[in-house]
Amino acid sequence: MSDTILKATNISKIYGSHRALNKVSLKIKRGMIYGLIGANGAGKSTFMRTVMGLISTDEGALELFGQSGVKELQQARRKMGQSIETPALYPNLSARENLQVQAANGGVSEREINYLLQLMNLSDTGKKKAKNFSLGMRQRLAIASTLITNPEFLILDEPTNGLDPSGIVEMRSIIQRLVTERGITVLLSSHLLDELSQVATHYGILHDGELISEFSKEELAGKTRQYMELETADVQQAIVVLDQLNVKDYEVINGTEIYIYEQLDNVADINHALVLANVKVSRIGTTRQKLEDYFLQLTGGGEHA
Ligand SMILES: Nc1ncnc2c1ncn2[C@@H]1O[C@H](COP(=O)(O)OP(=O)(O)OP(=O)(O)O)[C@@H](O)[C@H]1O
């Protein structure tokens, strides 16, 4: 059994003169939850479509479950589920009836349908018709129907998109259960790093069709730096004091704020030195860089990129 579920090597997709994907290489191993993060138009859906074989690639090679021939890839895709092009939900049927219809050809038991309804928090929707579902419920039902074929590898395109904060939390915990209870490997996308920060084990940042950065959950925690935030109307004098204290790793964010990346245990001493030098400090304390700021920094969209 291959440990590598997906290996993409230099995948490109070209529309006219536009490279929607430019030499994207990445590897997803069994058990990973891989979050593909990118702004609208970055190429997330295009990449997912090439993996599913819904569109062809112009350059590069794909390997799924260790297989790479055209026929072998088609066979490997039978072990996959996706929410990029989900089977249409039947608006006049309930959640259970929708799954029963999807299951009709596959010999899927009522017990399995019960499990999927429960897994997706849809058990108590009773006779309610899909057309009356909230966006979150519809999204969960769509995922449930992709699980009918018992996939080993699931591709979810923006599963948290449009959900309210509690819907996002619910979706994350469902995805985690898929991995722990069913051993499914997941590739999912979002335009917000923060939305996947609690769920993905690995991340790839897609920007203008290029994979510009990859990191693990642990690396992400390390990369979003902790820093000391200092607010004062007297930035010039504050910098003189910082220099005297041998603080070198800092940046002036705007006319009144300084971010200091070292001596984080010395907040009190730094504050004391500033006060002694007659620098009026309106705020000082440590904080952690926000994930979206980190994302903007990577993609060149931040003010201090
Ligand atoms: N069929 C197509 N023909 C021409 N251009 C396309 C086609 N499909 C996608 N594109 C272009 O390729 C780029 C990547 O699109 P893609 O849908 O993969 O982005 P995305 O990261 O999924 O963004 P979104 O979140 O908006 O779906 C965009 O510039 C898009 O306009």
UniProtKB/TrEMBL annotation:
Pfam families: ABC_tran (PF00005). Keywords: ATP-binding, Nucleotide-binding, Transport. SMART domains: AAA. Gene3D superfamilies: P-loop containing nucleotide triphosphate hydrolases (3.40.50.300). Residues 6-233 form the ABC transporter domain. One of its GO terms (molecular function) is ATP binding. It comes from the Bacteria. Belongs to the ABC transporter superfamily. This is ABC transporter ATP-binding protein. It comes from Gracilibacillus salinarum.
